[in-house]
Amino acid sequence: xxxxxxxxxxxxxxxxxxxxxxxxxxxxxxxxxxxxxxxxxxxxxxxxxxxxxxxxxxxxxxxxxxxxxxxxxxxxxxxxxxxxxxxxxxxxxxxxxxxxxxxxxxxxxxxxxxxxxxxxxxxxxxxxxxxxx
Length: 133
What we know:
Helix content: under 10%
Strand content: 35-45%
Structural class: mainly beta
Number of strands: 10
CATH class of the largest domain: Mainly Beta
Low-confidence stretches: none
Number of domains: 2
Mean pLDDT: 84
Shape: globular
CATH topology of the largest domain: Elongation Factor Tu (Ef-tu), domain 3
Number of helices: 0
């Protein structure tokens, strides 16, 4: 399988433990090397709050699009799967009304990168999910 080296987190002379390499920026351990698939088709994982899970359409009726911040580019998404395990929400939005104990359901989509778009793995995007007409 072809791949691309996305990140090298180890420096010459650094110690790599079984937990990975210590990253001073995040103060946690990271893998020494991050490898991903070659450019062309990417996946995006979005987290649906547990209070909105009942509003998700059936998998064959889901229509979703991704909006890149900055150029306001809209990219259509293809539904891949739902990870059927609700987990605690890690990223909070700093909204005053947001509950800390919210749990989320991961939903995975795939998209082909338009030739004119600059999209990179790890980028934060907005995903809008609706009902296919």
